[in-house]
Design goal:
single chain; 209 residues; alpha/beta; Rossmann fold; seven-stranded mixed sheet; 4 helices; 19% strand
Length: 209
């Protein structure tokens, strides 16, 4: 989560995240970056935290990427920790630093998921305790509003998992090979039974070629 980016970790190349320099990667290595990785580690993806790549600090991106552009970004449950205005600025920043044809796979809590306990946790300010990871939630998106954040930045949008206004869950086939989202129908252990217990609103936002 965005609020826990400050951990001292290293990327998949063994480079401390505080000195992450994407421009130094060999040109044959795809640049695939997890934004706000927390404890997430996926093969082939470089995890970053707020310390090394702040969505609200363009200078971080200039310093990290220089003349290089990313092939893909992956971001799970970070955008809800930004205001809507900050989220729109962050989408524009991601667009700037992606190659044409590159994409960001982004997931947030879903405002239309019909579960009282889920919505109590996802709501602005979280469920109550000040030390809860959701305590600094600033917005809860539905699929239309979240799509618009990226559409207005110039992206083409592909909704992968979401609930509609009636709370019906929609799934469009996607592959974890293009970016794993744990809190999803495919991967979350809570969804292995007969019912869907926890979901995310997940989309791919692709920069046109």
């Amino acid at each position: 989560m965005y609020s826990t980016w400050g951990r001292s970790v290293t990327d998949c190349l063994g480079v401390p995240l505080a000195v992450l320099d994407i421009s130094s990667l060999p040109s044959t290595v795809p640049v695939r970056v997890i934004i706000g990785a927390g404890e997430q580690r996926w093969p082939g993806w470089i995890p970053t935290n707020k310390e090394s790549l702040d969505l609200l600090c363009p200078a971080d991106w200039e310093r990290s990427f220089s003349c290089r552009r990313a092939d893909a970004f992956l971001c799970e449950h970070v955008w809800e920790h930004l205001t809507e205005a900050e989220g729109r600025s962050a989408a524009e920043l991601c667009y700037q630093w992606l190659k044409p044809g590159g994409y960001i796979r982004c997931a947030v809590p879903d405002a239309n998921f019909p579960s009282e306990s889920y919505q109590k946790t996802a709501q602005v300010g979280g469920p109550g305790p000040k030390d809860h990871p959701a305590a600094d939630h600033k917005i809860v998106y539905d699929y239309k509003r979240f799509s618009d954040v990226f559409c207005r930045a110039g992206f083409d949008i592909d909704l992968l998992e979401y609930c509609d206004e009636q709370g019906r869950f929609h799934y469009n086939q996607w592959s974890p090979d293009d970016g794993s989202v744990y809190r999803s129908l495919l991967l979350d252990h809570r969804n292995q039974g007969a019912s869907i217990e926890s979901v995310s609103l997940i989309l791919d936002a692709r920069k046109p070629r």
